[in-house]
Inverse folding.
């Protein structure tokens, strides 16, 4: 057992060292080379479509006990492979985030100081069995000049290997180091452990998946982590909300897609408007297939609503279910969010600019919205082109993590012989 | 023993929870209140001068076995207390970093997206026995809206408590929560352990001190760390260097102050100019009291130089000693830095812009300089007004950490009822 663990630790270390050397080369690669690699990888995905689908069929055959939802996430189709290829081409179209001047100033002694964007280095990506993440994450890391080691779910290893072959082909075609994109060379879970202990070898770990996976990574990693464990998002319907807008926004925020992290899980509604508005909101959502968990004040208005248990307001449903609490104004809404929220995304619906300002100023969440659907918390919707995830921690990046957030910075100090007094 | 550890863990947790509540209030405090607190604390430092010096005398009396250098760092004088007070007032003069709009754009659907600076939250500061760090770090955290728990060296506890009383007085005078600045309530080293394990309670740990302290914090912390373990800085004298400038810069970079992290530890010099220039550089530095560890190629030119041992090029001397290696051009200089450097600060001296560009592009250090002394790596010299440390990690902030780097960001999304398609 220890011999196997040692062997896996060695495998990881050797992958990470190759990734470091590749990162040094990729980090200085000009944009045309990176874009050529992405486009060649897209072409390879299309050319190897048959092999990718065959590998995916083997993965599916090897995992007969999966739930229907899990099976769907694992399944590749020609359309899904084509979407992956298009995704690579779209990342090639995005501006190069590396080398941007983020700030520049001069000092009285004549020194010019420039803060410039540079790649982070070597990123470890740990995710569950959605094979497309292999291509999406690799594309964003490649374009931002970072090497990446991808460890997907063990059920999708053959699919991941087939996709990875296309990325390797793209890197080769562009004269870039193949080790810039690697997939874990073993399905053994000890490889994840080696990644989590990989301080000095990895610069950053990005986990994507359910709360269990992300929480484990956050708790055990000795490497910085960029992630969100859950998105317990709130929509707060303020006393001065436009009722028609509140209906439209809540229906979208809750029901457009219930399984994404930016979906609203809890409705907070001001006591002043709840008697008139809450029954309409509930009827709208019920018609869309939503059910409810309501506090006593909400049930006093809509007695048919099921009572919320103590833990319900701290539960990310990721489903067609809405928690409802009646509150008294902005401070009470903020207090509820502080107690139950996950610092992801919260929205206020109001026509009262002062109330919106008070609400937004009082939040510490990664994203605060005014009169917009919480489902807009997304890198594409923010204009980032693509995202590798959403971060709710306090350091480096918060909210959608796109190409710019996959960069760090450094300083250039340009002098003419200045010495420090 | 376990009962004591449990009790200390409880002490830490209670301090951290009070800090969190204070941070929520301080994070929204307007600039005038924060500045008033800093100015009132400065006034209190002057008013309580006698008590502070008496507490410091007790600290000194209680630690008889200290080295002269350590004793000097621990000692307070009226001038040093006055400098602390002036430091607080200078931070009050700096712009408020909180609430700045870092970026703003609109989306085709009319959503306006704004990235704004906000405090990180609760910071843990672990440092050795320089009592002034108590005031300096507290001032920067306070101004940036962060609560801080300060754990200084156990030899300086009475001094730290006396200084802390002034900060508490300042916070009180300004109507801000006293728990925003706390000192560890116990000298027990287990408190440091509790801080290091404080994920969820602390958002960030900043260690300041020797390599041993910082390395321990980096290795053991389960909380993000912003720091540098060492500053193994290089000055590279390129073949096209102006000899007079090279002499001036190297003397300053090595000898202005030898004990700071931005001091140059290694001279790299191109083989093309070493025969003429190295003897002059060595003579200059020798006249300033520097000694040397040189590789074989340097000793072929200056045979009197002591030979460098294998580990010398990886040693941060922090003293009047210079490692010297002769290299062949920019790629070899970069390769040496990659193998031995600490990603802190490196400088090239050259009149050749293309060589400078090649050198700076090839670095991954936090700071790269052209024709300037590495000793300029400092928050004050960068124009930040003050710094809480230098960071050499890859995430969040690199180089000098000032008020702006003590902030994170969040997004405000301002809509007019948009729903996501």
């Amino acid at each position: 057992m220890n011999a196997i663990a040692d062997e896996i630790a060695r495998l990881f270390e050797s992958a990470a060292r190759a990734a470091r050397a590749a990162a040094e080369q990729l980090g200085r690669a000009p944009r045309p080379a990176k874009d050529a690699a992405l486009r060649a990888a897209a072409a390879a995905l299309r050319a190897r479509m048959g092999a990718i689908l065959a590998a995916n069929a083997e993965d599916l055959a090897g995992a007969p006990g999966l739930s229907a939802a899990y099976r769907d996430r694992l399944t590749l189709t020609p359309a899904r492979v084509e979407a992956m290829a298009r995704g690579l081409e779209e990342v090639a179209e995005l501006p190069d985030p590396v080398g941007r001047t983020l700030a520049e100033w001069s000092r009285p002694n004549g020194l010019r100081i420039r803060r410039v964007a540079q790649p982070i280095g070597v990123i470890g990506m740990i995710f569950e069995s959605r094979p497309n993440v292999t291509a999406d994450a690799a594309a964003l890391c490649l374009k931002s000049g970072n090497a990446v080691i991808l460890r997907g779910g063990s059920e999708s290893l053959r699919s991941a290997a087939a996709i990875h072959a296309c990325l390797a082909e793209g890197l080769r075609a562009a004269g870039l180091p193949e080790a810039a994109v690697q997939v874990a060379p073993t399905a053994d879970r000890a490889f994840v452990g080696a990644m989590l202990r990989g301080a000095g070898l990895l610069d950053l770990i990005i986990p994507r998946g359910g709360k269990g996976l992300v929480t484990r990574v956050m708790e055990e990693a000795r490497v910085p982590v960029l992630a969100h464990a859950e998105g317990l998002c709130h929509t707060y319907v303020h006393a001065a909300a436009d009722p028609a807008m509140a209906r439209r926004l809540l229906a979208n925020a809750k029901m457009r897609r219930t399984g994404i992290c930016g979906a609203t899980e809890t409705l907070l509604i001001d006591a002043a408007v709840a008697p008139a508005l809450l029954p309409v909101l509930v009827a709208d959502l019920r018609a869309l297939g939503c059910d409810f968990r309501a506090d006593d004040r909400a049930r006093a208005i809509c007695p048919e609503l099921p009572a919320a248990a103590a833990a319900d307001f701290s539960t990310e449903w990721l489903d067609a279910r809405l928690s409802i609490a009646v509150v008294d104004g902005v401070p009470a809404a903020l207090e509820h969010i502080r107690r139950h929220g996950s610092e992801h995304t919260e929205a206020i619906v109001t026509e009262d600019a002062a109330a919106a300002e008070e609400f937004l100023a009082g939040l510490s969440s990664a994203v605060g919205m005014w009169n917009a659907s919480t489902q807009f918390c997304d890198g594409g919707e923010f204009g980032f082109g693509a995202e590798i995830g959403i971060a709710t921690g306090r350091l480096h990046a918060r909210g959608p993590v796109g190409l710019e957030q996959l960069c760090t910075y450094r300083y250039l100090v340009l002098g003419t012989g200045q010495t420090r007094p």
Observations:
- The mean pLDDT of chain B is 95.
